[in-house]
Amino acid sequence: MEISELYSIFKSHPQVTTDSRDCPKGSIFFALKGASFNGNTFAEKALAQGCSYAVVDEKEYYKENDGRYILTDDCLSTLQKLANYHRRQLGTKIISITGTNGKTTTKELIAAVLSEKFDVLYTQGNFNNHIGVPKTLLRMTEKNDIAVIEMGANHLGEIKQLVDIVEPDYGIITNVGMAHLKGFGSFEGVVRTKGELYDYLRAHNGTAFIHNENKHLIGISDGIKLIKYGCEGAEDLLVCGKVITCNPFLNFKWQQGCGEWHITKTHLIGSYNVFNMLAAACIGIYFGVSEEQVCHALTNYIPTNNRSELETTPYNKLIIDAYNANPTSMEAALINFRDMEMDNKMAIIGDMGELGDVSGEEHQKVVNMLKASNFDEIWLVGNEFGKIPSPFPKFKDVEEVKKEIKEQRPEGHCILIKGSNAMKLFELVDLL
Asked: 301-313 pLDDT, tens per residue?
């Protein structure tokens, strides 16, 4: 079946699913495969559960006499081609966002700002990979004025694959840092892969929003129309800003060009979030959102995704940054926590994943930072930290930490919880 024919079916059944446990009535099921499952085996179940069609790529599961089955060479490729075809038919303006740190928070801030004026579709949760991105595109409708599509990667070439599906008009790379080095091979590999977004924009006359003080990004941005934001050189920036305080929440001021300053109080922890805020303000101003609307959106954004959250419990104040961790974000979080004017500081720090050959070296750097900190108590969690000599209590995993908390819960502390998502440190919040 040609993609145009499948698209005709999609227009009458504009909802797709890849999970036979979630089959909205009238949807189209795509039988994707993984390391431990074969979606083809669930096609019949998906139809019984409410799907109107099932796209399969193995003949033994294709029922030729049942018009609800659609046979293709590769279900994932077909899903991606359908998403790209849909994107081309609608012509919605698309902003793609990637980066080592801050891309999810920045995506949500951009969506919040643009939603003050436009109907905005944006990536939900962490649906930012080769499956999540096409599923997000297929949620677009004619109502949407703008779409903000997050793109993640942990191997070379993955951003190129995603931009070829999305075909963005605009792009933003929040930053590049030390992350997923096992897949990228080196920091240079990170820069090259994230830069694949710039490569697409350069080749298709697109526009990039860029942090003007980030030398790595400026260094790979030649030949692209740039809209700049930052903290220095207001005359060259669409939006300029400065941190006022961060104790614990970020308060900052910003201005359009060299215009009036706007003081904005946020619900985000971490001075490093000022660049995420400025990116959202810059994009909002570029698209004609008023300065008052930008302030309203940034002031009222409240994180709910284990990123830069502050939660006060009956026992402690918790700074929750437990969704992800890499050397760059870990250093920023520890510096910010060190500089906060809070009493009885405690840090529960989990392993950073996917660092390959430099894992030991990078975990040692974190231990060195912790030794030089002014924290009252420090717990280290995970096998990588377990290999590093240190004076701090060590726990194999989150279950050991839970056991310790149940026996003797810390009280009266301000506690930073930071680690890779795989460490599951977010499970500690209800206990602290």
From this structure: 998 766 778 889 9
